[in-house]
Design a protein that fits this description.
The chain is mostly helical. Helices cover about 70% and strands about 0% of the residues.
């Protein structure tokens, strides 16, 4: 197992490098970079953009507009959209500030060399270190990801087992209707429905509409802090669970059905073992392999990608919203810094999933298979 783990760890390096190269090139080709964002703000055509310019590291687009007004004139022939009428020297100043005066490959390798040391730089538009931003948003996303994954597994595994045991019976048919609804309704639409029904939208006003905790949370006693936290997170987690339990339920059911029909189950029944002994003593361990081993990947998926619209709808300032705003504003340090970190974490979690396979069932040997 140790040799397999070492090989997988070494494989992470070229995989991560390739992902960063592809995404770096795609982002460079896409129009509307940070310089265009500032130019749009200067020209009054941007919806929202703030940036650090002028070498101070703390300015915003308003100060950029003031500097631009002092440098207006010329700008024809610039490779940036909307730069007409601006002094070319001002454009060059922006390029130096953002590092765009260097060749593409030099910028990439400089970025990667910093990322290897987990130095992700400073946000263009927030004037804060990327690490600090991620740590600030992390509690929201961890809360959503942890509770959603936990509840999804607690609901899906027993339901999937029950459906497998009662395959084709009325219970299986009726619960399949619920699963179909879970498949059909995206989590963000279910979130809107929950707001309309339970958050003062039209019927009941039982739950808060925004935030992870109340404004006076720090002033509350500890037991009310816990209650307030769960009061705020109930609807977002419920919206995510409804969108995630359907697939895991069917995966559990199909996995159990496949095992139940195997010869060793028939033999166990022939020996006179009770149905519960057969189901939980023999079938459960084998059927749960793919379900349990997929837990790390499921958690990472919900934590970093699955909650974006839910965070927006419930005004939860988490990693999903941070990444979305960074992409809209072309905040490259946040975009590439979070991409690097979360891709690395995802690759490591894939390895953890494989190791979990081997821990759950020692008969699995990836080394023997030449993996």
């Amino acid at each position: 197992m140790l040799a397999y783990i070492i090989r997988r760890l070494l494989l992470i390096i070229p995989t991560l490098f390739g992902i960063m190269v592809i995404n770096f090139l795609i982002v460079q080709i896409a129009p509307g970079g940070p310089i265009e964002q500032i130019i749009a703000r200067v020209q009054g055509t941007a919806v929202e953009a703030t940036a650090r310019i002028g070498g101070t590291g703390g300015g915003d687009a308003s100060s950029g507009a003031q500097q631009a007004q002092q440098h207006q004139g010329g700008g024809e022939g610039s490779r940036y959209r909307g730069a007409q009428g601006l002094d070319p020297e001002f454009i060059k100043q922006l390029e130096r500030e953002f590092g765009f005066d260097k060749p593409l490959h030099e910028r990439f390798f400089h970025m990667i060399s910093n990322y290897v040391m987990f130095d992700f730089g400073t946000s263009y538009f927030r004037d804060r270190r990327v690490v600090d931003l991620v740590l600030e948003k992390m509690p929201v996303s961890i809360s959503l990801g942890l509770w959603t994954t936990l509840l999804t597994y607690l609901i899906s595994i027993p339901l999937g087992i029950a459906k497998a045991v009662r395959d084709g019976k009325p219970f299986d048919v009726w619960t399949s209707a619920v699963v179909i609804v879970g498949y059909a309704i995206p989590s963000f639409l279910f979130a809107v429905l929950l707001i309309v029904v339970f958050a003062g939208g039209r019927y009941f006003d039982w739950f808060p509409l925004r935030g992870l905790v109340s404004d006076n949370w720090s002033e509350l006693p500890w037991y009310r802090q816990i209650a307030d936290y769960f009061w705020h997170i109930t609807l977002p987690v419920l919206a995510l669970v409804i969108g995630g339990f359907a697939g895991l339920t069917m995966l559990t059911k199909n996995s159990f059905l496949e095992e139940i029909n195997k010869q060793y189950v028939v033999t166990a029944r022939a020996k006179g073992l009770k149905e519960k002994q057969v189901l939980y003593g023999h079938v459960f361990r084998n059927a749960m392999l793919i379900v349990i081993a997929g837990f790390p990947g499921a958690f990472i998926g919900i934590l970093f990608t699955g909650a974006l619209l839910t965070e927006v709808i419930f005004s939860l300032d988490g990693l999903g919203l941070l990444g979305f705003e960074a992409a809209i504003n072309r905040d490259y340090p946040v975009m590439f810094g979070t991409l690097y970190f979360f891709t690395l974490l995802g690759l490591v979690m894939n390895l953890v999933g494989d190791v979990t396979y081997m821990l759950v069932d020692p008969r699995i040997d990836f080394e023997a298979r030449g993996a």
